[in-house]
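thoughts on my protein:
***
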Amino acid sequence: MHGAGNDFVIINNISGDIPEKEYPRLAQKLCSYHTSIGADGLMIVVKAENCGDYGMRFYNSDGSLGEMCGNGARCIARYGYENGLAGEIQKIETTAGLVTGERLSRRIYKVRLNDPGVIELRKKVIIDSAEIYINYVELGNPGIPHAVVHMQDMDEWDRDKLREFGRKLRFYPGFSKGANVNFVKHTGDNLLKILTYERGVEDFTLACGTGSGASAAVFHMLGLVSDKNIRLQNIGGELSVDLKQDNNRIYDIYLSGPTNTVCAGKILDEDLI
């Protein structure tokens, strides 16, 4: 499946037949574009442990465990509905906390992202001896780390140089868990253009759901967008964010956008046998 170009392999393991210790190896193998299926990440559907309808374990393509994935959660919500795991409104247990998904139409799904636990505006970082001010957000607990860089000249940057800049910020020593890096340009009324260098993928991806949510929260707090229908143009498609603010607290971040089921079947990869 993919959501606005953010693509995933999904495996139903509610039965528990696949040992959890195998998840990282499966992610590394199945997400390889040239020697297997290829994807940004692997999502495992598991049995709920608490009050959810089911659980989701998300692994990046390098085999590292991700706290949560916004576009992945939207895809999982569609998977859950179409496979009888939940109704049109569903509760999904993730490593970062409980996520609520909702079916808006056959292909459009909305999820409530985890509330930010940390928001730091105009945080100073030092890259190559230069002082740079970025914004830092963690969604959920444990939080999904995002650096949000307001970059009006983003389109003028050479893509390779921008990628290298993203890599340096991603591994910045001041980010204890590393960070996803979102370069964002304010292009119009409630309209943002976003390009995300994703931790675990270690490159730009076609879309990032939690990155879009974190960026919308930052630009709202900066007074550049409202709290409704904030449109984020990712390379792979447009996502929409609604949110609420109470003083310095941002909450109820809802991410909406398209989902696409590409194929379903058996994995016959001989290297996994």
The chain has a mean pLDDT of 96. Residues 29 and 271 are 8 Å apart (CA to CA). The longest strand covers residues 116-127.
